[in-house]
Amino acid sequence: MSQHRWHRGLSREAGVAPEWKVLLRDLDRLQQMRLQYRGADWLVRTDAAPTTTALFRQAHVALPPRARQTAPPKPTAPRKSTPKRRGRPPT
What we know:
Layout: H1 3-14, H2 20-29, E1 32-37, E2 40-45, H3 50-58, E3 67-70
Antiparallel strand pairs: 1-2, 2-3
Helix pairs in contact: 1-3
């Protein structure tokens, strides 16, 4: 989203007017991490600032839920190592 469109449209419609630098800082603070708790995998994100939430709502973009249970990542099969070649290379 361009700074011009944000300033003229979304911020006015949402009823908030944070500075561009403040908005970028708030967006940088949004993080998501995966953790395991009591055998279950969870995706957890940080809380969004109220102005950021209002702008997302006005843009019709849903923020992910604060916490949601997910399936564990699929285990990967161990890679077979190739045996080292011994002796002279074939001619």
